[in-house]
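Lab notebook page, bench 4
Experiment: in silico fold of construct C2
Operator: M.H.
Input chain length: 149 residues
Purpose: comparison with the prior construct
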Amino acid sequence: MERHEFLSKLGIGLVAVCAGCSLVSCGGKSSNPGPSTGNATPPPTKGSGNLFSADLNTQLANIGDSVIQQGVILVRIASGNTADAFTAVQLACTHQGNSIGYNNGQGIFICPAHGSEFSKAGAVLQGPAALPLQKYTVTISGSTLTVSA
């Protein structure tokens, strides 16, 4: 076998192996075709009742303070102890399920994984996320704040 013939066959063999690897890695069907769950606790379903409570005498004293429980992030977004001074949304980003955080300086929720941004009400401001965050009901009785689905 001559050098030129050897190199031609080697090159064709490498191309075939690389093409086969590409097809195997991209062609498999996932057993879970939905979005991945990332690292966040899945959000509670609507209608599941009271999720958790916070004591406003000891928690959430400052604008930007937050509490994370049961797949929900609760944030104080304004002063005063009225329901509209707080927002509660699902913790899991709707893109791939990673935990979001609240950026008090910008007044938005941000997913650190891929940069999705959401309004205080959970609306998508910037993708790649296409779906809004689920928003939960905040009620206040005395100094007790309750988050419910």
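Observations: The longest helix spans residues 3-27. Residues 21-36 have pLDDT under 50 and may be disordered.
Next step: discuss at group meeting.
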